Amino acid sequence: MNGVLRIGLIGMGRIGKLHGSNLQSLVKGAEIVCAADLYLDEDKERWAKSVGIARCSRDPEDIFEDPDIDAVFICSSTDTHADFIVRAAKAGKNIFCEKPIAVNVSDINRSLRAVEKAGVKLQVGFVRRFDKSHKAVHDAAASGKIGKVYVVKVCSRDPEAPPMSYVEKSGGIFMDMMIHDFDMVRYLSGSEVTEVYAAGGCLVDSHFADYGDVDTAIVTLRFENGALGVIDNCRQAPYGYDQRVEVHGEKGCVRDENQLEDEARLATASGTLGAKPTWFFLERYNDAFVEEERAFVKACLSDAPVPVGGKDGLKAVLIAKAARKSLETGRPVRLDDPDVTSD
Amino acid sequence: MNGVLRIGLIGMGRIGKLHGSNLQSLVKGAEIVCAADLYLDEDKERWAKSVGIARCSRDPEDIFEDPDIDAVFICSSTDTHADFIVRAAKAGKNIFCEKPIAVNVSDINRSLRAVEKAGVKLQVGFVRRFDKSHKAVHDAAASGKIGKVYVVKVCSRDPEAPPMSYVEKSGGIFMDMMIHDFDMVRYLSGSEVTEVYAAGGCLVDSHFADYGDVDTAIVTLRFENGALGVIDNCRQAPYGYDQRVEVHGEKGCVRDENQLEDEARLATASGTLGAKPTWFFLERYNDAFVEEERAFVKACLSDAPVPVGGKDGLKAVLIAKAARKSLETGRPVRLDDPDVTSD
Amino acid sequence: MNGVLRIGLIGMGRIGKLHGSNLQSLVKGAEIVCAADLYLDEDKERWAKSVGIARCSRDPEDIFEDPDIDAVFICSSTDTHADFIVRAAKAGKNIFCEKPIAVNVSDINRSLRAVEKAGVKLQVGFVRRFDKSHKAVHDAAASGKIGKVYVVKVCSRDPEAPPMSYVEKSGGIFMDMMIHDFDMVRYLSGSEVTEVYAAGGCLVDSHFADYGDVDTAIVTLRFENGALGVIDNCRQAPYGYDQRVEVHGEKGCVRDENQLEDEARLATASGTLGAKPTWFFLERYNDAFVEEERAFVKACLSDAPVPVGGKDGLKAVLIAKAARKSLETGRPVRLDDPDVTSD
Amino acid sequence: MNGVLRIGLIGMGRIGKLHGSNLQSLVKGAEIVCAADLYLDEDKERWAKSVGIARCSRDPEDIFEDPDIDAVFICSSTDTHADFIVRAAKAGKNIFCEKPIAVNVSDINRSLRAVEKAGVKLQVGFVRRFDKSHKAVHDAAASGKIGKVYVVKVCSRDPEAPPMSYVEKSGGIFMDMMIHDFDMVRYLSGSEVTEVYAAGGCLVDSHFADYGDVDTAIVTLRFENGALGVIDNCRQAPYGYDQRVEVHGEKGCVRDENQLEDEARLATASGTLGAKPTWFFLERYNDAFVEEERAFVKACLSDAPVPVGGKDGLKAVLIAKAARKSLETGRPVRLDDPDVTSD
To answer: What is the ipTM of this complex?
Structure first.
């Protein structure tokens, strides 16, 4: 590596294009030399050209087999992640993989083993850790400004529910949506979750129940260090993407507010009207995606550890599985419950 | 009643003096004609005189037996509440009673029966309903501005822990502190709690455990209307009294922020520094106490229902009992659990 | 004086009743023993009785001549202030006088001379100095937290314009409304004004011009210490009473925001709607009036200097006169301009 | 033009590189085909290559004479702007020119005449109009939400003073710094300035006086429609780049707050500490530069008017000249003053 990380992009759907555009135009030291997509079409080829990606392919092997490629961005569908990670690891390439690594534990474990064996890097796409506000909360807590951590709270509500066609395959609210928050509470508390209790309901749309899912959930968590946590999710918050975190400790509390579309306020006889939060994750975490990519590129070029690794990807999935079982049984579930740690 | 409510004040401790001073100077239509305290002393007599209370007594019977007294404020210790309510009801007097009515269900029930039989009014001192910010949140939700209610959240954290001598007799965090929040979630959701799950720990001070208590707790609640709720309490929030509520619904969210000591902000190279929240309940709910008293006096003078009644007092205690059992068993507990509904 | 300041209240109009009620119920150590009003009527007598004032009179001499009265609150019409100050001073009574002392310099000067000669105290009713937010701004600046002061800004806008019958006799926007802000910039800058430039217009209602007045004005000020200042006033701000101050200095800036009716915020698809500022000065400066009265009573009882004295009353009037001349001439006017310092 | 605007970039200093990078990576439909700089060096050539600019030159004529170039971005030093505008106009190219067009009126006028004669577009770089918060304030006012405009206020303070070597040639605070705010008040008020009064001083650093300049200034403005305005500038605000605007009108007020580095708040016993404003114009107006460039490219490709034209460039310079004369004479100065309208 000579100061430029030569990247192969796998998957040119929405998230693949996002990473691709950012890497080409905003991330110094990154260069995508090939983009592969099993469903390559004219639209994807046109996009690739527009961002200066010289080569396109239908076959990821064209990336894995290319000795000039240093790293891969795995942005294909979740069910392909584990195989691609294993393949990329064998090929000696550093790996950025979108979350989740997989939805079953055995696939995650074989991915992590392959990565370890190959001695390559694996960064998992928990993008919210790179949001400047969440990061500032983390940094204040991690640097001891609030002393010992007592409680972590995460409010995470989407502006609009996904279509039912998505819900059907999403893996459920804990695996698909709250998984970000499970990572967030680990990030903010600096400790591991030991037990969860989940309460949920179909308040937005009863059709979620048709897929065994809920649209609203509150999960209470216990941490190894004794701290407590709580996360609330809702699939539909019509006032906008609600993304707030709080950490309470012995010396104080650090929390953040939503990022608004603008800072203007209209004061009339009706009150003072401010802007809505930035619409959804593409807007709110726009800058965070770039920071995430920069962190990966920097870790590869400087041979430093990645900031979010395979273990983080595993832990979030385990918590999601425990939350699922808790919802189904109506009881708290420990993370070492055999139903959680096995597939 | 001729436009003035003649009141007998029972109990001249901190809360009794607070109600007494307010009633005498800030509540139109109220007049305390006698103040009784089992432990009457010179200091209490001096205070009574300073606020214009003409008569003092060691014996509450002097109040109950006085046909010129229309209503009583029961501000004595919790263990006396039920007997005084029963006695006042029999005497035909309207009753304001500080919370809780009692810590066991049978005492509450005999109080409510006596009140019902006598046809008098009973208002319970859930003062937070009269806070202008919490009330504005309630009013927005109750008037349909956020549509169907999905989730209610209450963050309620005291600035400093009470002395262990108090903890010993407090009845525990749920009965002593979170009871206000149990009432608040009923007020905000417009629905009854059906099940609770409580997680807690001694994070502030391990001595709470000596009394079987916790200092930090998160309680998840389910409501009859399908909504979910969550309350977090901590005995010590060194940044100040943290009192925030949120209601999320199908059309939006209404929430409040803490009331600060002042609205000044100092911007320097270190950032922007604002004031702390008003210190504790006497400061934060200073105006709410007056509104609470006005509401009682108005209800008595106009023969309208009181805004917070005996049933509200009972329900909050039942939720507290369920939360206690949940903490002890590590399981969710229904409100109709026999351990909850019996003493 | 034996720990209680015996007060004579002169004038039972709106502001007189406000001071009177506060002094009787909220200011420890204060006791109004007589209230006088040239236009005493049943309503005023009823009010006096309701707040526990034993004696009423049509003749202020009943107050001045009463050797048991320690201090007077002059709340009568502006044109009577100077004579009453002189009379009270001769009678050896400490004086609280509502602003302005007078609208012409000679009346102010003879008032101040009488006060000085008698060795009594004179506090002028610049109530905003006692607002907790403005005071916090002042305290931060005065204690050096922003270093040398560069610029002071005051935004002061009334929610609704007074009736034209009031405008006719008000003395104009500078003497009637901005006079509070002239005192505020002196308070915040810690320096004396040397020159002003006033721009104004009739934007709200052209009828202000009928009385030679404007309804909107911006005044730029220069201070002895080199700092600059700016004040903007408007007679009508339909979104509520807008009262914000800023002080900029070499190390930072301290400013305040309006006090809102409550801290609730309603977030919907339309944005986030917060409450309006507290309506007008009676609401916004409600607590400040009490603090002002307490400060006077404390100064009298402890024989300490009053926090806002006669010189402050004079200075604000001189600035108002200079602003008036600037508006009329379209030129900056110095405070030592003979038209300013003479009547 | 076939959907792509072929651009020649003139000047590769800080602002030229900023526009260049944005145009290449973030502005759809833009393509820089040549970049010219009188002082071309290796660093500039390297930069050009890194953003995909194929051709570099020392001679702007290589751009003007190239028939394949549709538009130019003039980012060279101010003294070259007028000549380059005239030359580009003659060559039939659309023009984006950084502010100011020139510091003397005759140069501006000959630029505007050349542009008009050639029928090309000229957009002037008043980037703040494209800031999302300022724009939201403008849009609310322009759409009538606050009714008739009464007062416009702009607070604009730089985080740190420029070096004296810059001050020497800057043209003074009004031409160099406040010129943005002069454009802003025209933008927000929807009206033309008729008279200004400027007060200023050297509060930050007495060395500004060595160059006949001030470091702190307050300018009061009158508008054709009767509205009033005020701008305050300071060369050094150590708490960060302070960029706030307010518009007051008959129905309300719309204003904005600074954009902060993040939305985290740390609450401890010392108060609540939030982040500083984003550091300086490159950070605060980062997105606005892109919006500005997009607006120009869109206007060129769709043959629509540019949002900020040559007249806007002229007007801001005239106001700056009037402010300068006011500061020197201590008197208000009209915009039609011969000293303002002539060189």
So the answer is: 0.94
